[in-house]
Amino acid sequence: MYLGYVLLNGLVFHFTGKTFRFPLNRTYSESFQTERGVTRALVRAGFRDVRVVENIPLVVTARRG
Fold first, then answer.
1. Is 51 found in the same domain as 40?
2. Residue 48 shares a structural domain with residue 23
3. Kindly report the CA angle at 41 between 16 and 11, in degrees rounded to 5?
4. I want to staple 9 with a disulfide (CB 3.0 to 4.6 A). Which of 31, 36, 50, 55 is the partner?
5. Are residues 46 and 64 in the same domain?
6. Which domain holds residue 55?
7. For the chain, how many structural domains are there in total?
8. Are 29 and 20 in contact (CB under 8 A)?
9. CA dist 29 to 18, 20, 46, 65, Å?
10. 10 Å Cβ neighbour count for 37?
11. What's the predicted TM-score (pTM) here?
């Protein structure tokens, strides 16, 4: 059940940029991020020149402003 929540939360983040807490324990919030989702979230937060570093998982560079 928890893995289904993580998958659904990741998809919601990918398409909307929002996440929600686990319904059975409101202290948990977890999701996966796609390149598109992270890029959109950073642009919304005011970053520019967002770039996912190739061949290095989970590394993104961006400029503020």
1. yes
2. no
3. 40
4. 31
5. yes
6. 35-65
7. 2
8. yes
9. 11, 7, 24, 29
10. 20
11. 0.71
